[in-house]
């Protein structure tokens, strides 16, 4: 990551870096990564939360257990772990880094505008930082409901927002599908990638930036739909996109 930032001439004193989430797990330096990003300071760094980040927060509350493959031991055992978790809990599920730009870990649910997604992300943040934090985290894990409805309430409402913004890849008839992780060309016919659904904010040329879907390898065939997870943990590349110049930077694993 530091090599990639250097190649883009990222200046930690004047520039701002946004991350698309899943800051931790799989790689050997989760602790170092979190500390580096936190130390950039609020004016120079922000991130959306990914499914692995939420999983880590749940783990810190004793709700789930670490998997050895995630190599999280040095982070979990470090004296700053609590402080780093508190910092992660202040992060949103969706951000607007610039006019007509939207970031979330998984993407934009086809029935939502970016404005709606940002407001639903605030509802989750309220739960994540409030007195009901434990109850929220405990009820976060499930694959239902699969279709959004404005009348959803409570844990089901928040769970749908979490699933749509941090786990979505394919849908079938507006319903989230969680099993399929492959490239769209290899997926069953009835499944459609979220970004191919008609969504007014996609048509209005908003730029949607996301991570999560490594097997896409950045291929959305749409210059305004920017997939940044290019499989670094699988030995491929890490990708950085400059909002101002629309330039891509890449670092081989
Ligand atoms: Mn993810």
TrEMBL record:
Keyword tags: Hydrolase
Domain Calcineurin-like phosphoesterase: 2-194
Origin: domain of life: Bacteria
Keyword 4Fe-4S assigned: no
Any one GO MF annotation of this record: bis(5'-nucleosyl)-tetraphosphatase (symmetrical) activity
Keyword Hydrolase on entry: yes
InterPro entries in UniProt: ApaH, Calcineurin-like_PHP, Metallo-depent_PP-like
Name of a matching Pfam family: Metallophos
EC number from the UniProt entry: 3.6.1.41
Reaction equations catalysed: P(1),P(4)-bis(5'-adenosyl) tetraphosphate + H2O = 2 ADP + 2 H(+)
Family listed: Belongs to the Ap4A hydrolase family.
Biological role: Hydrolyzes diadenosine 5',5'''-P1,P4-tetraphosphate to yield ADP.
Protein name as annotated: bis(5'-nucleosyl)-tetraphosphatase (symmetrical)
Organism: Brumicola pallidula DSM 14239 = ACAM 615
